[in-house]
Amino acid sequence: MLKAYIWDLDGTLFDSYGSIVSSLSEVAGNCGTEDSAETIMRTVKRGSVTEYLRALSAKSGRKSEELFREYRAVSHRKLNEITLIPDAAETLEALRKKGARHFVYTHRGGSTLPLLDRLGIASFFAEIVTHDQGFRPKPSGDGVKYLLEKYALGRKDTAYVGDRSLDVLCAKDAGVQAVLYLPDDSCVIPTGQEDRIIRSLKDLTMEGEHAV
What we know:
Layout: E1 4-7, E2 14-15, H1 17-30, H2 37-46, H3 49-60, H4 64-77, E3 83-84, H5 88-97, E4 101-105, H6 112-118, E5 125-129, H7 142-151, E6 158-162, H8 165-174, E7 177-181, E8 196-198
Parallel strand pairs: 1-4, 1-6, 4-5, 6-7, 7-8
Antiparallel strand pairs: 2-3
Helix pairs in contact: 1-2, 1-4, 2-3
């Protein structure tokens, strides 16, 4: 069994894409752009929020920094809409009972700990690494490498779990196991570099964690 799990949050432990998409839709509307929810979701899931906002900046002529500030303000108002992915807390607990340690590496910033506290899972994590700590963004694995070094985690015994190709590439850059959470309704296309693809978080509690 794996000894450590480093978790992405949005779309992996947090059921937050509804909030993210509606926030981006509001920002786009303020720019005179009416992208469908499906278009926004596909861009975010296959790329990132940053990718969408940069494209919106190029289309609207507004500075990307301004759009990022507006997005953060809008999304902050929607934090209470975020819930846990099904089986998230139960999976964390089951893996902990098996002796695994949990960590977080997320692009989310100052909202991270309040959300983890509100959703009742903050106590599972030995350390929570966010955007505010200044690591290069994914697909760089710098944030994961920091945790590996600090806690002397073995690369073969550690997995980074996320729901996007960006997360898989982050894991590969850090040299750890790449676990892609790919529910049936996901638009994400696997990279082929995954060590394991799961359809439900509780799949992690089953045998065969190293198999795709």
